[in-house]
Write a structure and sequence with these properties.
By secondary structure, the protein is an alpha/beta fold. The protein has 14 helices and 17 strands. The protein starts with a helix and ends in an 8-residue tail after the last strand. The structure holds nicotinamide-adenine-dinucleotide.
Length: 445
């Protein structure tokens, strides 16, 4: 059979990936065989700031995970993490320069957890994967699509695992709501809309303890213009993508999971309206369109930084009901049935949802008529699945299980890239004031 050019390229790419994966697996096996305790995975952390510490806490709860090194350019973060890890019996070597960490520790390491600011993820992740190390990289993959794509390419070329930190993808509550209730059971019928928001009250910029202020030379060496930008990197174009990327990426990622397709367009409005010292848009509202196998669906997303109203949560709206969910269950953890929908009691009897918590809507409340044809029930049916671990732990477990047992990653680089394409486009839509149309090929790195 003759192959056309595309088929040839695909076959060659697949063969290349297979070879890389086989090589990576051989290195992995050799490392495991050389270890005193092959069940133990040795890891390093690059970027020991706020999120690095949260991931550290989760890793410490997972059996067989041992920190052997950390890297951070700021001695405040270095000291904090080194001391914290010591309390739990993990003596780590501390590095300022990630290249030195890799050169010195790579033969002892299995994987690296990266929680540096977004603009450094690609440089850090690519260097680690090229040194034969698996990578868990925080979201957003990058503030640049080219850099995000380079991470996908490096993972394919080296055969190393690359997990992106959209941790809801491993959260059993979300898996139950999306894969069980929406996809498998069809509880809420065809999902025609989704809404999500992450709103925060007005806040001051982050500061720093004066005795830990970095000198201008050190800041410049690592590419930061000032301590203010170093601490508040999210707000500056060089280092991050603003709230829509920082916060929105977690939730916009879910829309693709719900519908199984990437968006076909996005429109957006936003501005640098309330924080004149920042570069990125402080309040953003956007609407995506999804051409799903079941018809057109739309998702509205907002991230506001001048009001905390409604905090953060997501609602997936189907013709038979809505699922409201949030990473913190107190903010969303229930299904609401449309009054015309089939009875949900059989689902409750099977344990798929809990029984309705409050009485359903009556046809009238005092003098106000309620239209039963169009109104959802007043009572919410709670979701029965609890996450009894810290929010990031299942996603890290998924990553470590992939290293140990070859189980699939819940958010491999390719999936993270698709989300990065959808999310980074919002900033372009705001800047241009134009609707952005996507091609399916835009989502392939
Ligand atoms: N998944 C989640 O829920 C979640 C939550 C918060 C943050 N994050 C992500 O985690 C990452 C870190 O965010 P954060 O809130 O911890 O920021 P942060 O500013 O608190 O911490 C960043 C750390 O990286 C260090 N750093 C900066 N440049 C470095 C370099 N070149 N080499 C080594 N270290 C460097 C800083 O000194 C700091 O200690 C970001 O990508 C962010 O989007 C994810």
């Amino acid at each position: 059979m003759e192959l056309n050019r595309t088929q040839f390229m695909q076959t060659a790419a697949a063969a290349g990936t297979l070879l890389a994966t086989t090589k990576a697996r051989a290195v992995e096996n050799a490392k495991l065989a050389a270890k005193k305790n092959p069940d133990q995975l040795n890891i390093a952390l690059i970027g020991a700031g706020a999120q690095g510490r949260i991931l550290t806490e989760s890793c410490l709860k997972i059996p067989g995970i041992r920190f052997i090194a950390i890297c951070d350019i700021w001695d405040y973060s270095q000291r904090y993490s080194q001391r914290y890890l010591k309390k739990y019996g993990h003596e780590v070597n501390v590095y300022e320069d990630y290249q030195e960490l890799i050169a010195t520790e790579k033969d002892k390491l299995d994987a690296v957890v990266i929680a540096s600011p977004d603009w450094m993820h690609a440089e850090h992740a690519n260097a680690c994967m090229n040194a034969g190390l698996h990578v868990y990289s925080e979201k957003e993959m990058s503030n640049s699509l080219e850099k995000a794509a380079s991470m996908v390419h490096t993972a394919a070329a080296t055969g190393q695992l690359l997990q992106i930190g959209h941790q809801r993808r491993s959260n059993p509550r979300y898996i139950h709501a999306i894969e069980k209730l929406i996809h498998e059971v069809g509880l809420i019928g065809t999902v025609t809309n989704a809404t999500a928001q992450w709103n925060r009250a007005k806040t001051e910029d982050l500061g720093w303890p004066k005795k830990y202020e970095m000198g201008a030379d050190t800041l410049a060496k690592y590419g930061y213009n000032s301590m203010t930008e170093f601490r508040n990197w999210r707000w500056y174009k060089k280092y991050g993508g603003g709230p829509i990327v920082d916060l929105g990426s977690h939730q916009i990622d879910l829309f693709e999971w719900i519908w199984g397709v990437n968006p076909k367009s996005v429109i957006a409005s936003g501005g640098v309206d309330y924080y004149p010292n920042h570069e990125w848009y402080d309040n953003v509202m956007c609407i995506y369109e999804y051409d799903t196998p079941d018809g057109m669906a739309r998702a509205y997303y907002e991230t506001l930084t001048t009001t905390g109203h409604r905090g953060f949560s997501e609602a997936f709206r189907g013709v038979n009901g809505t699922i409201e969910i949030a990473e913190v269950p107190q903010r969303g953890n229930s299904a609401l049935r449309e009054a015309h929908a089939p009875d949900w009691q059989p689902y409750a009897e099977k344990g798929l949802i809990n029984s309705v918590a409050a009485p359903i809507a009556k046809t009238t409340t005092k003098n106000v008529a309620v239209d039963v044809r169009v109104t959802a029930e007043a009572g919410a049916w709670p979701l029965p699945v609890e996450l009894t671990k810290p929010a990031h732990q299942p996603h890290l477990e998924n990553f470590f299980n992939a290293i140990r047992y070859g189980t699939p990653l819940n958010c491999p680089g390719e999936k993270g890239y698709e989300t990065a394409v959808a999310v980074l486009a919002v900033n372009r839509a705001v800047a241009s004031g134009q609707r952005i149309e996507f091609n399916p090929s835009d989502f392939h790195a």
